Amino acid sequence: MYQIDCPHCGPRAQSEFTFDRPVEAIVPPDAAAADALQALYTRTNPMGVDDEVWRHTYGCRAWLVLTRDRVSHAIDAVRALGPEALS
To answer: What is the pLDDT of residue 39?
Structure first.
């Protein structure tokens, strides 16, 4: 188990959080059906650093973006989810 530094609550155990999806799998509501299917079901699963959406389920319930290494699980950054976090 590792710790995630919630921007609202401070460092907390990973067990308080729930993984949702990689940021690349977020589909805008106005996306074409083919583009939505591509984003949701044919993503790559690379080794290395990636941005992921997590929720602080058993804490402040905020949505967060974690920059995490998929191999070592090292977390480089945690930021609150909003339009600015996805750019």
So the answer is: 83
